Amino acid sequence: MSYKQMTAADIAALRELIGDDERVFAGEEIHEDYSHDELGGTVHYPDIVLRVLSAEEVAAVMRYASREHIPVTPRGAGTGLVGAAVAAEGGILLDMSLMNRFLELDEDNLTLTVEPGVLLMEIYAYVEEKGFFYPPDPGEKSATIGGNVSTNAGGMRAVKYGVTRDYVRGLEVVLPNGEIVTFGGKVVKNSSGYSMKDLIVGSEGTLGVVTKIILKLLPLPKRTVSLLVPFPSLRDAINTVPLIVRSKAAPTAVEFMEREVILDAEQYLGKKFPDHSADAYLILKFDGPSLEQIERDYEGVARLCLEQGALDVLISDTEERDESIWKARGAFLEAIRGSTDEMDEVDVVVPRGSINRMVAYIHALQSELGVRIKSFGHAGDGNLHAYILRDGREEDEWQRILHLAMEKIYAEANVLRGQVSGEHGIGYAKRPYLRESLEPQVLELMRGVKRAFDPENILNPHKVCGL
Amino acid sequence: MSYKQMTAADIAALRELIGDDERVFAGEEIHEDYSHDELGGTVHYPDIVLRVLSAEEVAAVMRYASREHIPVTPRGAGTGLVGAAVAAEGGILLDMSLMNRFLELDEDNLTLTVEPGVLLMEIYAYVEEKGFFYPPDPGEKSATIGGNVSTNAGGMRAVKYGVTRDYVRGLEVVLPNGEIVTFGGKVVKNSSGYSMKDLIVGSEGTLGVVTKIILKLLPLPKRTVSLLVPFPSLRDAINTVPLIVRSKAAPTAVEFMEREVILDAEQYLGKKFPDHSADAYLILKFDGPSLEQIERDYEGVARLCLEQGALDVLISDTEERDESIWKARGAFLEAIRGSTDEMDEVDVVVPRGSINRMVAYIHALQSELGVRIKSFGHAGDGNLHAYILRDGREEDEWQRILHLAMEKIYAEANVLRGQVSGEHGIGYAKRPYLRESLEPQVLELMRGVKRAFDPENILNPHKVCGL
Question: How far is Cα B71 from Cα B48, in angstroms, rounded to an integer?
Answer without folding.
Answer: 11
